[in-house]
Amino acid sequence: MKNKYTHSAWLAGLLIILSSLVTGCSDSSEPDVQQGRPLQVNMTRSDSEEETPVQIGTQICLWLVQSDDTKQSGYVTYAGKDANKKDVWNSGVFVEGSKTYYIYGYMPSKLVDGSDITATKDGNVVTGATLKLEGLKVLSKEDFSIVIGVKAGEDGTVRRGDFSYTAEAENNGITLLVDHLYAGASFKMNINAEYNKLRTIKLKKMELVCTDPQMRSKVNATITFRNGLTNPVNSITTNRDADADEAKQTLFEDAEGIELTEAESVIDAMNFLPTFASSLALFSTYDVYDKKGNLIRENCTATNKLTGILSGIQRGQIRPVLLTVNPTYIYVLSEPDLDKPDLVIGN
């Protein structure tokens, strides 16, 4: 088991230094008339061993709520680096001096169809929030993260569970701590050494699919936050979006196919909601050739369930999956075994 940040710049969190907020985290909403002063943005990462560049155009959706139940939402958009190689974030949310906001959010915004938020209060004190995400993708090559802490300014450590921010009359800037909603898996493939002496395998396509026929490619998710806790994500619940397509994503596709060797070939990686890990499977399509280059079998298929290898996976974790082409009886090579071998999962 590996963590996304310790293995590939994932788990501990993203620090996003913001100097702009926004309005309207739903395609159907119109921007509000803004009052006050904007916030502006830089972004750094904490506890990261390698850089994972943000794509230009990536948007963070932020929700701001106040103790009087006023709320607003908007986007912060990554614009690239300036001449000094400093990250530039464009934004349009405005805050008014001396007002206290509780800030929640997620990124990238394009992985959901829309969102809304409701503050949880004890009297006039905001103690948390319920964030509703409509049409959240179950599978995605992009990671999906949620805000789990906020602080004013660029210096110092953001504490998990701190969401309040009091705006100033002039300069306003905040730092966001972001954690992962998805888990992930990285996929590799090779061929058994003995079998490789007899046959050539060319992988043409690999898909990550959900074996539950009722599952769709999107869900409506409800995330509840409790302020002041080290783990502020109190609960995550989902229900399927009945209007969405079948839940599957292509990891690799090549009409000619790539020839597999005894060395491990990197196929791709995929992120997913860990709730559905037990119903995920790999569906592979490949051709079989003899060592003279003659096509023996075309478009063979194999389905490998990932139930065991992804068992217990949590948000922010990524697991490697290795598929090895291997005949059922390696020393008694009957014709069916030779020309349509099994794909065996290891890690």
Tag the structure with descriptive keywords:
single chain, 347 residues, mainly beta, nine-stranded antiparallel β-sheet, six-stranded mixed β-sheet, 3 helices, 53% strand, elongated
Structure at a glance:
By secondary structure, this protein is mostly beta strands.
Question: Beta-strand percentage?
Answer: over 45%
Largest sheet: 9 strands, antiparallel
Distance between the termini: 10 Å
Shape: elongated
How many H/I helical runs?
3
Topology:
Layout: E1 2-3, H1 4-8, E2 14-18, E3 37-38, E4 42-45, E5 59-65, E6 71-81, E7 87-91, E8 94-95, E9 100-107, E10 114-122, E11 125-137, E12 139-140, E13 145-152, E14 164-166, E15 174-180, E16 183-191, H2 193-196, E17 199-210, E18 218-226, E19 233-240, E20 248-259, E21 265-272, E22 280-290, E23 295-305, E24 317-326, H3 335-339, E25 342-346
Parallel strand pairs: 16-24
Antiparallel strand pairs: 1-24, 2-4, 2-15, 3-8, 5-6, 5-9, 6-7, 9-13, 9-14, 10-11, 11-18, 12-21, 13-15, 16-21, 17-20, 17-22, 18-19, 22-23, 24-25
Please describe what this structure looks like:
The protein is mostly beta strands and 347 residues long. 4% of the residues lie in helices and 53% in strands. It contains three helices and 25 strands. The strands form five sheets. Strands 2, 4, 5, 6, 7, 9, 13, 14 and 15 form a nine-stranded antiparallel beta sheet that branches. Strands 1, 12, 16, 21, 24 and 25 form a six-stranded mixed beta sheet that branches. Residues 5-13, 19-23, 27-33, 41-51 and 329-336 have low confidence and may be disordered.
